[in-house]
Design goal:
The complex is a heterodimer of chains A (198) and B (169). Chain A has 198 residues and is mostly beta strands. Chain A has two domains: 32 residues; 158 residues, Immunoglobulin-like. Helix content of chain A is 14%, strand content 51%. Chain A is built from one helix and ten strands, in the order αββββββββββ. Chain A is rod-shaped and about 100 Å long. Chain B is an all-alpha fold and 169 residues long. Chain B has a domain of 102 residues: Butyryl-CoA Dehydrogenase, subunit A, domain 3 (Up-down Bundle). In chain B, 89% of the residues lie in helices and 0% in strands. Chain B has three helices and no strands. The radius of gyration of chain B is 40 Å and the shape is rod-shaped. The termini of chain B are far apart. The chains are: A mainly beta (198), B mainly alpha (169).
Chain lengths: 198, 169
């Protein structure tokens, strides 16, 4: 190697060393993209904390339990709202394509603050309290969720194809939007089908 | 009916009527009060959450504050459900407790943010100073190192003795 080549190697080595020495400060000033996808998880688990044994054939005055959970991967601590709604087969679910929640009024609700990377889980215990049945017509008058009683007056007709009176207990996930300073539907919902057997 | 009996009956009626009137008035006040307490609690929790976010952005560990906020959120949800069911006493009770926790969290988050900003500013200036000293040291070291190397290089070149080779075979 001649002197010019030595000088190039020396200059490059010095610059690399300077960058290494300045790296802690650069790390504080320059925002490096994390490349992480931001999303929230939303789930309902059965009574044994597993994705099985969900209540399906339900009877009056019997208690059923599931667990509702949220996982936060939004990059910051997030403020969630979970609405619990109840519907028959003909009433609308949320519209995932249009990111619109179900127009049905919420019965019960949860609010949770979850750290980034953290999860939140809560029990949901429900009981059908009062029903009236007339041949192929069923009316659920009242139900309780976590010991709070709600008047629902939800009717269902006999489903001859699947042999049952079907209802759905479903949950919508809403996320607090700091810019709007209000909750916004987070386009996630989960639910369990219930066959009211008597 | 004697005057005493009539007075007694009238008094009983008045007492009964006043109780009814008072209870109706309280119920009405409770509803408007419940609505106002609930709205206020929602605002307090919103601002507490925003304060926590600012503290988190400043680099503070906000896990304790989130636990407290979670309690506030639970109470707020309870109050909102109670409001929809018309249980205004429960609304006031839960929303008031929620507001207390929310206020506390907001204050703690603001303090934590200021504290963290201070610590981070000190840490930033120390890091910056360290990096500057390091860069200058590397620059000077490289400069003197290069000069030393160049000097040794020339010395080595000058110490070399030319060899003369003949082309004769």
């Amino acid at each position: 190697m001649n002197l010019e080549e030595y000088r190039t190697v020396f200059a490059a080595g010095s610059l690399v060393t300077m960058l290494i020495v300045a790296a802690p400060t650069l790390g504080l000033i320059v925002p490096f993209p994390t490349g992480m996808e931001r999303f929230s998880e939303f789930w309902v688990l059965g009574p044994n904390h597993m994705a099985e044994d969900y209540p399906f054939n339900v009877r009056v005055n019997e208690s059923y339990s599931v667990f509702v959970g949220v996982g936060n991967h939004m990059g910051v601590s997030s403020y969630y709202l979970v609405y619990v709604k109840f519907r028959n087969q003909t009433q609308p679910l949320p519209n995932a394509t249009a990111s619109e929640p179900s127009p049905l009024p919420p019965l019960y609700e949860y609010q949770a603050f979850v750290a980034d990377g953290g999860t939140w889980e809560a029990p949901l215990t429900f009981r059908i309290l009062e029903v009236s049945r007339n041949d192929d017509y069923m009316l659920i008058d009242r139900l309780s969720i976590n010991d709070v009683v709600f008047v629902v007056n939800s009717s269902a007709v006999w489903d001859s194809e699947y042999k049952g009176f079907y209802y759905q207990l479903f949950l919508e996930l809403w996320l607090y939007d700091v810019t709007l300073q209000s909750f916004k539907f987070h386009n996630r919902f989960v639910g369990i089908w219930l066959n009211m057997t008597g | 009916m004697s005057v005493r009996k009539f007075s007694f009956v009238l008094m009983m009626l008045l007492v009964f009527a006043s109780q009814f009137y008072v209870s109706v008035t309280i119920a009405q006040v409770s509803e408007s009060e419940a609505s106002s307490v609930l709205t206020s609690a929602e605002g307090i929790v919103d601002s507490a959450y925003q304060a926590v976010l600012r503290a988190e952005e400043a680099g503070a560990n906000v896990s304790d504050l989130l636990f407290q906020l979670d309690d506030a959120g639970e109470l707020l949800a309870k109050a909102k459900v109670a409001y929809r069911l018309g249980d205004f006493d429960e609304v006031v009770r839960s929303a008031s407790l929620c507001s207390d926790i929310g206020e506390n969290v907001k204050n703690e988050a603001d303090e934590l943010r200021v504290e963290t900003y201070g610590l981070r500013a000190t840490s930033f200036w120390l890091t910056l100073a360290g990096s500057l000293v390091g860069v200058v040291a590397v620059g000077l070291g490289s400069f003197w190192g290069w000069r030393f190397f160049k000097k040794r290089y020339y010395e080595r070149v000058l110490e070399m003795k030319p060899e003369i080779k003949s082309n004769e075979s």
